[in-house]
Design a protein that fits this description.
Strand content: 5-15%
Low-confidence stretches: none
CATH superfamily of the largest domain: Aspartate/ornithine carbamoyltransferase
Shape: globular
Mean pLDDT: 90
Number of strands: 9
Oligomer: single chain
CATH topology of the largest domain: Rossmann fold
Strand order of the largest sheet: 7-6-5-8-9
CATH architecture of the largest domain: 3-Layer(aba) Sandwich
Structural class: alpha/beta
Distance between the termini: 17 Å
């Protein structure tokens, strides 16, 4: 029986291409499960999973929780806002206290890049990174690539462009690593101030013109402007950003081909893209949400088989 090459999901960087294909194969089976009248399987019965969210999250947390319950796991939800973290408790103390309650797996979102890696060296539970600062968000990249593959087939040679706030996005880095491991060509497009200085070292094409980027790509994966992570102004105004880097229906109509529109959510409608783009036949945004549960079920199931 095939298994993952790692005990944790800390980032796409640490996965082999074979791991990604195994997760996709498993997710396809779970997608059938969640479309059945009875959406539950006993695969993780007697496995206890703690969801540790040190940052606000709606979609990712609900998606993981749903995936865990579909697999019949016991679920413990932890929110830093209502915990002893507010009283000065360290990350390690918090997790050790939870582990003493005999938790087998930890799904963690944390504002500090590298927090899941630190934790994986200190505790015996399997760790799944649900987003660490501006570093990585591996399950989002997996569900994005899985959704693209459903729409386009094999991604080898396909042209994927990531638009927007690449600098502050953990989704962008994970997407770049994942798509490159699957043989896709990757580009980024955005204002120079929202592209990281190391972007050229990642082997991606760089566009500063939205129309040129749309003409080049097969898939436009559009990122949210992360105003909550921006400590200084990276562009003059939201209106100006929308004018120069927002995607509208007219741009898509001018293309001589069909392209796929994606967004990890939540969408700032009228900023990154207009509503008629988000809701158009080009968009697979809702499929991404559905695939998120199947991908997370696959990751949880495969990692549970690697428990020590």
């Amino acid at each position: 029986m095939k298994t993952l090459s790692t005990r944790h999901l800390l980032g796409i960087k640490y996965l082999q291409p074979e791991d990604i294909h195994l997760i996709f194969e498993t997710a396809e089976q779970f997608k059938e499960v969640i479309n059945r009248p009875i959406k539950k399987v006993p695969s993780l019965r007697d496995v206890t999973i703690a969801n540790l969210f040190f940052e606000n999250s709606t979609r990712t947390r609900i998606s993981f929780e749903l995936a865990e319950k579909r697999l019949s796991a016991d679920v413990v939800n932890f929110s830093a806002a209502s915990s002893s973290v507010k009283k000065g408790e360290t990350l390690l103390d918090t997790v050790n206290n939870i582990l003493s309650m005999k938790v087998d797996m930890v799904v963690m979102r944390h504002p500090a890049p590298g927090a899941p890696i630190f934790l994986s060296k200190k505790i015996p539970a399997n760790i799944i990174n649900a987003g660490d600062g501006t570093h990585e968000h591996p399950t989002q990249a997996l569900l994005d690539a899985f959704s693209m593959r459903e729409k386009l087939g094999d991604l080898t040679g396909k042209k994927i462009c990531i638009f927007g706030d690449v600098l502050h996005s953990r989704v962008a880095l994970s997407n770049i690593f994942c798509l490159q491991k699957l043989g896709a060509q990757v580009a980024v497009c955005g204002p120079p101030t929202l592209l990281p200085k190391y972007i050229n070292e990642l082997g991606v094409k760089v566009f500063f013109d939205v129309r040129k980027a749309l003409k080049w790509c097969d898939v436009a994966n559009v990122l949210r402007i992360q105003l909550e992570r921006q400590d200084i102004k990276y562009f003059p105004s939201i209106r100006e950003y929308s004018q120069y880097f927002g995607i509208n229906k007219q741009m898509l109509d001018e293309l001589d081909k069909e392209i796929v529109i994606m967004h990890p959510g939540p969408i700032n409608r009228g900023v990154e893209m207009t509503s008629d783009v988000a809701d158009s036949e080009h968009s697979i945004i809702l499929q991404q949400v559905e695939n998120g549960v199947a991908i997370r079920m696959a990751v949880l199931y495969l990692l549970a088989r690697k428990r020590v």
